[in-house]
Amino acid sequence: MLLDAARSALLVVDLQERLAPAIDGIDQVLANAARVIRAARRLDVPIVCSEQYPKGLGHTVPPIAELLPEGAIVDKVEFSAAANAAVSGRLAATGRPEVLICGIEAHVCVLQSAMQLAEGGVPVTVVRDACSSRRPESAAAAWDRLARHGVELVTSEMVLFEWMRRADSPEFRELSKLIK
């Protein structure tokens, strides 16, 4: 099934100051997460952002935090954002039946969030090029496991083109610049 902006909510998982520098390919992860967040904002896709134990891991990295809508960030201590009542409550309050996820680490918080949402009957899509782990083999294991459990794996470009659907819209003219 194609992604639909009108049915989607975006969950940004733990793109935090003290964890980000250790992540494999973090510059590309942040660039692709920013691309998806910008598209979500333009297409009115609700955004919820989790921060794992910010006292220890710091807050969301500034280039991402500055793109988020006011009040989007929720603190958590659970590895699965879906296990956090505030995060799951905000996702439910959006009224959007599908959740897209980007963030870190792919094999821990992203994986557990996606698996728990999927177990609850929520269609989940993980934006693979907007996620990573400290070690590439950990991320690779996450992709394999998520796919085996029915979680869709896409790229940030796939998200943008599926959300926009048409090349003759003002949104396409604006958002296509994020791809070039």
Describe this structure in words.
This protein has helices at residues 26-42, 54-57, 62-65, 85-93, 106-119, 136-148, 156-164, 170-175; strands at residues 8-13, 47-52, 73-76, 98-104, 124-132, 152-154. A 6-stranded parallel β-sheet has the order 3-2-1-4-5-6. The chain is built from 8 helices and 6 strands, in the order βαβααβαβαβαβαα. Strand 5, helix 6 (136-148) and strand 6 (152-154) form a beta-alpha-beta unit. 43% of the residues are buried. Helix 1 (26-42) runs parallel beside helix 7 (156-164). It is α/β, with parallel strands linked by helices. It has one domain (5-178): Isochorismatase-like (Rossmann fold). 42% of the residues lie in helices and 19% in strands.
Throw out a few tags for this protein:
single chain, 180 residues, alpha/beta, Rossmann fold, 6-stranded parallel β-sheet, 6 strands, globular
In short:
Helix content is 42%, strand content 19%. By secondary structure, the chain is of the alpha/beta class. The radius of gyration is 15 Å and the shape is globular.
Largest sheet: 6 strands, parallel
Protein structure class: alpha/beta
The tally of beta strands, per DSSP, is 6
CATH topology: Rossmann fold
DSSP strand content: 15-25%
**Residue share in helix:** 40-55%
Mean pLDDT: 96
CATH architecture type: 3-Layer(aba) Sandwich
In angstroms, what separates the terminal alpha carbons?
26 Å
Our Rg estimate from Cα atoms comes to 15 Å
Overall tally of domains: 1
Could you name the CATH class? Alpha Beta
Q: What is the overall number of helices?
A: 8
In CATH terms, the superfamily is Isochorismatase-like
- Listing every helix as H and every strand as E from the N terminus to the C terminus, the arrangement reads EHEHHEHEHEHEHH
Regions with pLDDT < 50 over 5+ consecutive residues?
A: none
Which overall shape is indicated by the principal axes computed on the Cα atoms?
globular
